[in-house]
Hints:
Elements: H1 3-16, E1 22-31, E2 34-39, E3 43-48, E4 52-53, E5 62-68, E6 71-77, H2 78-81, E7 93-94, E8 100-106, E9 109-115, E10 117-125, E11 129-130, H3 132-135, E12 144-150, E13 153-158, H4 160-169
Parallel strand pairs: 2-13, 6-9
Antiparallel strand pairs: 1-2, 1-10, 3-8, 4-7, 5-6, 8-9, 11-12, 12-13
Amino acid sequence: MxxxxxxxxxxxxxxxxxxxxTLFSAIIFMLEHSLFAINLDYLQEIIFLKDIFRVPNxxxxxxxxxxxxxxxxxxFSLKLILGMEDHLKGKNIIKxxxxxxxxxxxxxxxxxxxxDSIYKNIDVTELNYRGNEYIKNWSENLLFDGIILDEDxxxxxxxxxxxxxYLTYIK
Length: 171
């Protein structure tokens, strides 16, 4: 095939490709055997689980506090918030775990959330995202914004605003 014909074929294919607007980028992570996502706009950083020190007389969902470069950050169990079991619950000092902490920045606050593992980053587009309208038919949970469709998986996107609102009500 000549170079001229090949260039024309590539140009014709490019004209027929549909592009979808990127809505946001997300980090996908695992809790137990389920995948969840958080919008990268809220993610400050991901760190390996470090020593977490429990605060007496606090809700069990608050695993404790960490010192991250001089900042004291509360660390929560996403598993417990979502109604799953977490063997970290109630420990006075948590160390030596092969898990991660997502450091989330919301307005001026930094909060940590323990997750089992990091799966991947993904660009969320109009094609692979179903927003709140899609899930409100079968879920009244304000902790989720929508669902990302990735290959054969449906991944719940956690609403950071809903998560922070939830945390303000737990005692």
